[in-house]
Amino acid sequence: MSIARHPRPPELEGISIEKIMKTHVARFSERDPDWEAFEDAKIEGYKRAQRRFIGGGG
Is residue 42 part of a domain? Predict the structure, then answer.
């Protein structure tokens, strides 16, 4: 798969694929859990966290 299926957006023209990946790819291992994302997580036994990739949700 060495041929692009679509042209790059103008803001990404001339930027290396490595830099694009570094700025546009989020890895699960690099995200910090938000332990206050769910109200019921404050109850002991129901603790859960959320890792945010696109904004705060809601």
Answer: yes
Residue 51: alpha-carbon gap to chain centroid: 8
Written as six digits, the tokens of 56 are: 């705060």
Is 39 within a domain?
yes
Summarised one tens digit per residue, pLDDT across range 4-28 is 788 889 998 999 989 988 888 888 8
Kindly state whether residue 2 falls inside one of the protein's structural domains. Answer: no
Range 37-46 average pLDDT: 88
The residue type of 34 is D
Q: Cα–Cα distance between 48 and 28 in angstroms, integer?
A: 16
